[in-house]
Amino acid sequence: MVSRVIPVQSFDLVLFGATGDLARRKILPSLFHRFQIGQFSEDSRIIGASRSAMTQAEFQTMVADALHMFAQGPDLTEDDIAAFQTMLHYTPIDARGDTGWDELATHLRPDVVRAFYLSVGPSLFPDIAARLRSTGIATPDSRIVLEKPFGHDLASAQALNAALKANFEEQQIYRIDHYLGKETVQNLMALRFANSLFEPLWNASHIDHVQITVAESIGVKGRGEYYDKSGAMRDMVQNHLMQLLCLTAMEPPARFTPNAVRDEKVKVIEALNPVAPDDIARGQYRGPAGEAYRDHANNPNSTTESFIAMKVEVANWRWAGTPFYLRTGKCLRARESEIAVFFRDPPHNIFAADTGASGIKGNVLVIRLQPDEGITLRTTIKDPGPGGMRLTGANLDMTFADSLPEAGRPQDAYERLIMDVIRGNQTLFMRGDEVEAAWAWADPIIAGWSDDRHDIPQLYDPGSSGPEDALLLMHRDGRRWRGIGD
Ligand code: BG6
Predict the structure, then answer these.
(1) pLDDT by residue (tens digit) across 401-430?
(2) Would residue 317 count as lying in a domain?
(3) Residue 227 CA, closest ligand 1 atom number
(4) DSSP symbols for 390-446
(5) 240 is catalytic
(6) How far is the CA of 59 from the centre of ligand 1 (A)?
(7) What total of structural domains would you count in the chain?
(8) For the segment 118-156, what is each residue's pLDDT rounded down to a tens digit?
(9) How far away, in angstroms, is 373 Cα from ligand 1 center?
(10) Residue minimizing CA distance to atom 6 of ligand 1
């Protein structure tokens, strides 16, 4: 929908780690799509920076190869790729040494937006931030963009924040959680705050519980070494699921401004009760030789969880008495992510004599993040046909692809986020105190696993819905998980 595209200001984007996996898979294809759609002003530039001794021409070829491999879409044309290549520059740089910084400085123009995207391991963040500042390359208006993991625990996140803030102001720092760039995640805010229908019901009086599921069908093969030090709690819950929880539970901000939104999210995190070990189920996928988690992690004694389910309580007036159940894992039956809001049953069932207590199916609002992004509301209706008053469940169903076909190819989360960096809009980025609050909540939970009983994750079969303990966690409360891949 070209008519909706508003070009962003002219920019110089320096991409550290430009030859790495994330850059090739996500960042460069996302930049290309935004360029292709007409969002770049003509003189904008992308400057690759990494250790590899490459010429500009070699970098341009590498990017073209990456686009052929990872930039999907029928509109990928050689002409567009060639035009995009003219925006690409390259400087070999030693992030921890002196080489390359002077050359980088000569590439940058004084009067355009300057953004530094650190697609590198977090151990390099402090050095690069300090260099950018000490060389004068970072101006007071420059932006610095950081990828997760943002710390391993509260202490390391605080140290990272301190190192960044020694060189940049908070309003220059863009901490990426790519879940915030997903269309449906943003839609959660539109659904809640642009409609009057839901807000009166959005509280413990009307909502029985909420289930947030991020299920993945792939395992950790190829990245087991990183993952084994993290586990599902650090890799997914502390960041992505926490963001989904915050957007579902937060109070309406007074304005849609970066700090108003983030203030409300921080209040949710600070309202979370500590989670008792018995309210958590941890699992690890088994499998034939070579395919079990421990083989993928190359650690035969690993006690890291590849699955976690937990019951979380938001202890405030809106939510007291309405638990949030979070669940995420690898090697599950399907790749499926959703937020399911279960409403309470009507206070009195006038159909009980005809249908029995189970006649009412219960309203469930499901916000599907992937696949088939959309929203479904389960309702109870009369079972059509003669023979008395029988009830049955039926869905009001909306997928974005069907409702808005003209929107075309779904935007990758990174496309939105990178353009927001150039626009200078931090709403969809995590603030330093938000990250720290999430670690302050997660740390004691992780520490609680170090006793014998809770340290060993329960094994589950690949292609299942996770370990038995996760089911029991729900059954104990008289509830059931929604099926995965049903
Ligand atoms: C990443 C995690 O942040 O998110 C991965 O490190 C995970 O383990 C990925 O697979 C999931 O993202 P998405 O967008 O595929 O749901």
Answers:
(1) 888 777 777 789 999 999 999 999 999 999
(2) yes
(3) 8
(4) -EEEEEEEEEHHHH-GGG-SPPPHHHHHHHHHHHT--TTSB-HHHHHHHHHHHHHHH
(5) yes
(6) 27
(7) 2
(8) 999 999 999 999 999 999 999 999 999 999 899 999 999
(9) 17
(10) 235
